[in-house]
Amino acid sequence: MSETRYTEDHEWARPDGGTTVVVGITDYAQEQLGELVFIELPEVGSDLAQGDEAAVMESVKAAAEVKSPISGTVLETNDALNDAPDTVNREPTGDGWFFRINASDLAELDELMDEAAYTSYLATLE
Amino acid sequence: MQTPLYALHCEFSAKMVPFAGFEMPLQYSSGIITEHRHTRAAAGLFDVSHMGQIRLTGTNAAAALETLLPADVMGLAPGRQRYSVFTNEQGGIVDDLMITNAGDHLLLVVNAATKFDDLALLEANIGHRCGIELLDTHALIALQGPLAAQVLELSVADIAQLPFMHAAAVTIGDTACWVSRSGYTGEDGFEISLPAADAADVARRLLQNDAVAPVGLGARDSLRLEAGLCLYGHDIDNNTTPREAGIEFAISKMRRRGGVREGGFPGDNVILDNSAAPVRRRIGIKPLGRAPVREGADLVDAEYRPVGKVTSGSYGPTVEHPVAMGYVNGASALHGTTLNAIVRDKYLAVEVSPLPFVPHRYYRGR
User: Fold this and answer.
1) A56 touches chain B (CB under 8 A)
2) Which of B37, B94, B104, B306 has its CA 20 to 30 A from that of B78?
3) In chain A, which residue's Cα lies nearest the Cα of B321?
4) What is the arrangement of strands in the sheet containing B138-144, beginning at the earlier edge strand?
5) ipTM beyond cut 0.90
6) Interface of B with A (CB under 8 A)
7) Yes or no: is domain B278-366 CATH 2.40.30.110?
8) Could you tell me where the beta strands, DSSP code E, fall in B137-271?
9) Of the candidates B336, B310, B337, the residue with the CA atom closest to the CA atom of residue B322
10) Which residue in A34, A37, A82 is closest to B292 by CB distance?
11) pLDDT in tens, chain B (366 residues)
12) What is the CATH number of domain B6-52+136-226?
């Protein structure tokens, strides 16, 4: 129950102790978008339902949204991305995380893909 | 369709995208921002073979072409190039193009997405007066940036002396090419028209120079936007007049009111009527925050009254802030005016900015 889960929209959700979950986008997603030049993070304290738009990313060419992979209340955002959005390109699963959320129902993660399933899913997109 | 440089793009790990019927490189492995900056710092090589190259032949070609656009073509000397626009009866812009007097013919370079429409327009209107041939057996390579001249000089003696908007027949290796000093980046540079079969060899020869990197369509767009240059179908179209677009330089003096060959092109009465200020004008838009403002975003003034629309917008890797262009009513077009762009239902403050965002660095000779 503590492993990272993935959405079909290429967000990852990593349980981080208790009901806290860290959210970001996958390497595949950053690769598809190209170098990010702007990120709009959710407001701390905002309530998100699973699938709600949580953040916006802009590359040179296009804008894309990050959906929340799980319902809950935003605890903290990675404000370093405001000045260095390209951190997401360099370390999408590390320093390029987007926000921490206090999940209202951790069981929602079970609906998402585990690493093996996500890898197979990516193979279908080639 | 593939251009003659398709295999080369793949070798350089290009991300290919469909564009105007061709598979074109959006970017290579280094990414749009790096390619953009490399072009402004050194030299970028662009495959623009998707564009239309049209050859007009015959003694009446220049006079015939003048019936479709407001440029002085008859007075265009051999080896000289001019920018102009095909116009419609309403004074709108059907396409923008480069015209070169190549000695025994006129060479037109038109947009990729509009080339077959342009060809049909030419054939229907002046097909009886001159020869019209789409050079689909030719490639077009752009070499752009401050080091472009010294790179090309290694293959073509004295080419660095060729001034902006001049053109010449040259040989690169064993290949006969037609080279013009022009481009779409705001930088010094060249566009090289050459037979498709030799295009990859010439491109490889130029890419062997450490100063030269391949650059895709993504950076081509951000470069032209920083340079304040219009993209057809976005910043100019059938409903935009040259005056609204601020590209009156596409209208030669002798085709204007009081000129030797005044008018005589579609929409001339509208285009040459300077009695009233245009209802709307093209402006540069500098978003004051970090968020890019993109094509289609509505613009409102400080009191939130609608004043216009964004027609192109992206991030400017050289100026390191978002850049955009659009149209607003005359009262809102003054430099320094603060407006708001509506992005994702929010008002983002933007400023009317002079164009270009990055100064042009053309070589005008000495």
Assistant:
1) yes
2) B94
3) A37
4) B167-172, B175-180, B189-195, B138-144, B43-47, B212-214
5) no
6) 26-27, 31-33, 36, 218, 221-222, 290-292, 294, 314-315, 317, 322, 344
7) yes
8) 138-144, 167-172, 175-180, 189-195, 212-214
9) B310
10) A37
11) 999 999 999 999 999 999 999 999 999 999 999 999 999 999 999 999 999 999 999 999 999 999 999 999 999 999 999 999 999 999 999 999 999 999 999 999 999 999 999 999 999 999 999 999 999 999 999 999 999 999 999 999 999 999 999 999 999 999 999 999 999 999 999 999 999 999 999 999 999 999 999 999 999 999 999 999 999 999 999 999 999 999 999 999 999 999 999 999 999 999 999 898 899 999 999 999 999 999 999 999 999 999 999 999 999 999 999 999 999 999 999 999 999 999 999 999 999 999 999 999 999 987
12) 3.30.1360.120
The DSSP annotation for B280-298 comes to EEEEEEEESSSS---TT-E
Question: Please, is A39 exposed, middle or buried when counting C-beta atoms within 10 Å of its C-beta (0-12, 13-18, 19+)?
Answer: buried
Interface of A with B in 84-123 (CB under 8 A): none
In chain B, the residue whose alpha carbon lies closest to the alpha carbon of A82 is: B290
d(CA B214, CA B199): 14
pTM for this entry: 0.95
Domain map (residue ranges) of chain B: 6-52+136-226, 278-366
Q: What's the CA gap between B27 and A91, in Å, rounded?
A: 21
State how far the Cα of B97 lies from the Cα of B52, in Å rounded to an integer: 9
Three-class DSSP category at B218: helix
Interchain CB distance below 8 Å, B292 and A34: no
| Least Cα separation, residue B12 to chain A (angstroms) | 16
Residue B110 near residue B51, CB atoms below 8 Å: yes
Q: Which amino acid is at A26?
A: T
User: Is the domain defined by A5-121 classed in CATH 2.60.40.720?
Assistant: no
Selecting from B33, B221, B294 the residue whose C-beta is nearest the C-beta of A35 gives B33
CA separation, residue B351 to residues A27, B287, B289, B299, B324 (Å): 35, 6, 10, 11, 10
With CA atoms as reference, report the closest residue to A66 among A79, A85, A53: A53
Determine the 3-state secondary structure of B79 from DSSP: coil
Q: Where are the domains of chain A?
A: 5-121
Q: Tokens in use for B357?
A: 């965002």
Q: Smallest Cβ distance to A60: which of B218, B290, B344? A: B218
